[in-house]
Amino acid sequence: MTDPAVPIGRTRARAVETLSLDATETRNALSAALVTGLADALADCGEDPGVRAVVLTHTGTTFCAGADLRDPPAPEALVALLRRIVELPKPVVARVTGHVRAGGLGLLAACDIAAASAAATFAFTEVRIGVAPAVISLPVLPRADPRALARYYLTGERFGPAEAVSLGLLTTAADDVDDALAPVLDGLRRASPEALAETKRLLTARVLETFDRDADGLTALTARLFSSGQAREGMTAFLERRDAAWVV
């Protein structure tokens, strides 16, 4: 059973470690505890020679609802988690069968390969609560098509798996995500661990350049926006299930 203080489930099969976001009561929102627990689990996987690859998935109908508005992580902690996924010397594969919102899309973009089922939905909802998708832009913008992404960043609209593939946020979408991932995981199990690490380093170089250049500024922007009056109104409206004062 998952320790409620560390809401990350862990299983292993044939050298693939599965980490499951397991805080269904908060829709796997990015709380301080979840961010810390996931970062620690990833660090363990990175150091374990018995782990060839990591699958990041979830319990419940939501992969991740974004930041936990009642117990948000420090922006620096979220940056460190996203960077850990990108820098991990093992491939990280996202397996999504539910909803992904806001900060959850940062997790998705940080992964090397991402697959979703037809039931998945996606939205950058930050603008609707008075903030911006700042920190998560570190992995999102280098991976995705910025022209196509602009619509969803600016409107907070919901979109589906096919659109997520076309944006570059997903590798693949399928009715059965496990069928889609079977050949991927087989390929990773057949690959040399050193070759995987060096190949991942090639693939993530541009993403890490973005972290090096922009992390401090985007962390400061996140902190400033979350302390603003519009963010307080937006988050209050969200928790009270009403429109924010600026909705016209």
UniProtKB/TrEMBL annotation:
Organism of provenance: Streptomyces lavenduligriseus
Superkingdom, taxonomy of origin: Bacteria
Gene3D superfamilies the UniProt entry points to: 3.30.300.220, 3.90.226.20, Lyase 2-enoyl-coa Hydratase, Chain A, domain 2 (1.10.12.10)
Stated name of the protein: Enoyl-CoA hydratase family protein
Family statement: Belongs to the enoyl-CoA hydratase/isomerase family.
InterPro entries for this protein: ClpP/crotonase-like_dom_sf, Enoyl-CoA_hydra/iso, Enoyl-CoA_hydra_C, Enoyl-CoA_Hydratase/Isomerase
Source organism phylogeny: Bacteria, Bacillati, Actinomycetota, Actinomycetes, Kitasatosporales
